Amino acid sequence: MDLSNCTRPAYFLLVGLSTFGGMESMMYANVFLLYLLSLMGNGLIIMMVIVDRHLQKPMYFFLSNLSFIDIGHTTSFIPKLLLNYLSASNAICFYCCVIQLCFYFLFGVTEFFIITLISLDRYVAICHPLRYATIMTSGVCLKLAIGAWFGGFISIVYQVVMITKLPYCTSNIINHFFCDAGPVLKIAGGDTHVIETLGFLVSVVVIMSSLFFTLISYLFIIFTILQMPTTSRQQRAFSTCASHLIVVFILYGSVFFVYLRPTVKNSSFRVMKVVSVVYTMITPVLNPFIYTIRNKEVKEAVQKMIGRKIPALLCVRRNKN
């Protein structure tokens, strides 16, 4: 096919979630509920870390970064998904698709780095408690967080630029509910081998290195827990680690299935869309509850805030009366 006279499409059409068994209304209601829960849970974490000085610690600093990422990750595509459903139009402009793709992968890749930093922070806190304050200083934490965000940006920027320069002559229909790299490359003309190979290598390096350091950190944590003198402390620590690892396995397992494949030209995205729902919508809801809201310090901070707000509201009502 001659691509020399190919013009860039003004818009793409997203297939969306309409192929899921004819239960579109229920599916979109569930998507809206998951998005709302994600905003509320992660927003609460960010607010509590900002207003409560007892939560201004390295662990909660990284967790607030994770919450911000989860909000940004879901916001990069869910509002457009819901808007398309309400307007009965699945169109998305070309540059809107590129922006969505860029932010989706920026937040997604950075999340792996932040999860690794959270596991390393827990490793230092549990395995080297006496040196924790001197190792995890505010300056070190800030540099690590900046490094995570910069690493996420560097990992995706070149691929996004290359995708924008591809011709799209054969079709403008993206078989997904957002602008993901695989479905976009599948309808692209020209040679996409370099982009696919680069994306695969970046996925392998980022995902596998992140998973390696995360699992090694929790492995050392488990060994330290086994040496604790009391059974009650061991049970509490194991409960926390087990819940963290469940989220890690859900996230990495679904991402392995979707992104650790060397080619997308002959891929079928029906199953991939179902798996994508897990790590794009479910894990952002689980993260604040698993990592933060279950913590004793956060529960106490929330109770204190509620304890201050309720008397203040009652006082205002009395004054009005």
TrEMBL record:
The organism of origin for this protein: Pantherophis guttatus (Corn snake)
Protein name: Olfactory receptor
Domain of life: Eukaryota
UniProt-annotated location(s): Cell membrane
SUPFAM superfamilies on file: Family A G protein-coupled receptor-like
Chain segments annotated as transmembrane: 27-51, 98-120, 132-158, 200-226, 238-259, 271-291
GO terms of molecular function: G protein-coupled receptor activity; olfactory receptor activity
Membrane topology reported for the UniProt record: Multi-pass membrane protein
Keyword Glycoprotein in record: no
